[in-house]
Amino acid sequence: MVISNRILEQNNFPIRLLLEKELQHTRSVIVDMEDAVFWVKPDARFLYANDAACSLVRYSREELLSMTMHDIKPDFSPAVWSKHWRTIKEQGYLYFESLYRTKEDHTFPVEITIIYLEYNSREYGCILIRNISQRQQVSILLQKVNEVLDCKVQQLTAELRDANQQLCQEKVLRQQVETALKQEKLLTEHRAHFFSMLSHEFRTPLNIISLSASLLKRHLHRWTEEKKLQYLQRLEMAVEQISQLMDEIFLNGRAETGKLKFEPKPLNPIQLCTEILAEMNLNESNAPCLMPRDPFEIFSCEEPHHLVLPRESPVASFKGEVSSKESFYSNNSEQQKNFPISALPKTPHKAVTLISQGDCTVCVDQKLLQPILRNLLSNAVKYSPSDSTIDLVVSCQDGKAIFQIKDQGIGISVADQKRLFKPFHRGTNVGNIPGNGLGLALVKKLVDMHGGQISVASEVGIGTTFTIALPVQ
Question: Are 88 and 94 in contact (CB under 8 A)?
Fold first, then answer.
């Protein structure tokens, strides 16, 4: 008989180990739960309380382990608990709502689930508790709203017109609630996408900074000045990419919260576009800027004229170095100026053409118009082949200033055009081209602040034209 018992114990040993391991895993999960968790004996004495339980009732774990359910639950007398315990054993669990008391003698409503467990011939109760104060407040508020609505319906049944008016108001209220719920869900999705985008967008430039700095440090005394300059340029490009991303996020946030002020002032759109193109090419230069003292003298004629600025493509902005050599030529219809730049190694150039069709003064907010044009130009660069051209056409028609950015890039499908200005949306054909999906959403907000319109005409594989129309006054 003794031998049989030993054999039986040996056979049960792996099962016991498995159960103990499972119990240990369960304990680790319980510790990190947000809901309060208590373990109790059949006599209602606490055996265990997780951190959330201690926080809920304001007792330390040591204090709780010397207490019973009766101490924190006013209506849990020993007789009531004994009745509940019998029900728990029969059904395996018990769910109900009740009141709990904190150490400061403050009571609050809770949702209680008690699960019956048996281990090593001992009985336990696992109690899961959730504070439902806020839920009850909402329920009370909804009940009051329903009572008010019922009262109004009763008062207005005598007059059909007033009754219909109240029904319409109720419908609007319901739609507003549904809209609010949808917006909350969308906001949650956007928040998750936003943090995912931040992680992805920052990873590449930070890796470039880390690697370039490490290589420079390691080979500082062996590399040529040209080699060092190459990696310094990569560092500058990565820092600029991070800076631009932060600026875009900051501007988008201010626009979303209504903190972005619209302050229009009269300006020359041709002059502004020229400055933007020059800035996108020159603001990372290592040499003195050798632009003419008055570069806008070339726009004195009435006929259409062009400004051609070469620039590189792989980054979100145009960078380079102006040569001291300047060449001008003119005829009756066109004046042109070429600015060669010193690009990063093995970086292809593209031609940017500024075309003016007429001259006018517009009343716009320069600090808001600049990111509009920069973003659209950057997209044109990013999604176009290296040997293609991009036109920035500026004209004044019917009391509006028209800005058109035309490229010969990958194009935008009809399906993508419908969601083009939604935050975080990117085209299905962008492939591995980097981007965060915030740019066009920001552009749309800034155009709306001007009281203007933005439209797009595009064909996949052919190119895209964005048109911005802003009121002159």
Answer: yes
